[in-house]
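#lab-general

N.A. 3:47 PM
ok so I finally got the sequence cleaned up, no stray characters, all 330 residues accounted for. can someone with queue access submit it? mine expired

B.Y. 3:52 PM
send it over

N.A. 3:53 PM
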Amino acid sequence: MRNVSLDLLKVFASYMVVFIHIKFAGVAGAVVTSFARFAVPLFFMVSGYFSYNNDFNRIKKKAFHIFKIFACSISLYILCYILVLGWESAISENITYYFDWKKFILLIGFHSMNTTDHLWFLLALIYCYIMYGFLCVNKIKHRWCYIASIPLLCIHILMGEFLSVFGISVQTCLVRNFLFMGFPFFMFGIYVRENEKNILKFFSNRKIALFVLSGALESAISVLVLGYNEIHLGTLLIAPALFVLALKMKDIQYNKFFVLLCRCSTYIYVIHILIYRIIDKLIDSLNVSAYTTIWYYSSPIMMCVISTVFALVIDMVVSGLKKKYNPSAK
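B.Y. 4:20 PM
back already:
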């Protein structure tokens, strides 16, 4: 039975990604962004959770599915850039940009992308599936991966938050990639699935609230004192707590709208930047200060709403095509 609560948490996380990329103004925006950092680690956890005990062929299918989403997303962005910027600029910024060997290595090794940087997660997730498939084929025990994940996560936190205390800035792609962010959180999802009964028993609602509030407080203090970072120590409290909360709520029944909405998290994640850039360009072209001001303060919420509408339409189209050309697909 599908856990709709978990799917809705993914939708909520996708809105948090919107708030990371399209920030609220002022101090409130900084605090919201710091809390929203839990979103991508949560996506890795969920992917790991549903990969537990999968055989190699199943993992391969998952990786190929994400690759198709990645390829379609890149193609969509390039097509839109061609329409807006022209052929030469679109190709230059999205393809020939990577002819530089250093940029190409950063793309392949650390998912550093130019105009579609938010899609790094999809590449990182593919790598996580490849690594986990390797573990499955070679029958490497999970406990060794759990142990290896601890120093990787420590390096992630060190580079992502604590080095900024000493004024040391680390390139973003070195902080958030499949190795230091993706794989540790992916393995945590597997750990939760493997020990689900004990973990759900341990995490009472009071403990979940304590983890979320403590994590939010640490993240807020960090962003106000140290500035924007890719990760906060508080993220390590927020993401697992919300993940476990959704698992505890798996038996809740939702109305039809929420059941439809729960299929939209990936679409929202992929398209929100594209929609924002198009609308932002249109607002600028109007050259009316009132519109610009309204857009500046309301754009995060408006982008959640608009992206959701587009995501629901895309889901309806995709579902219709699946029923037409592959009636046996669920």
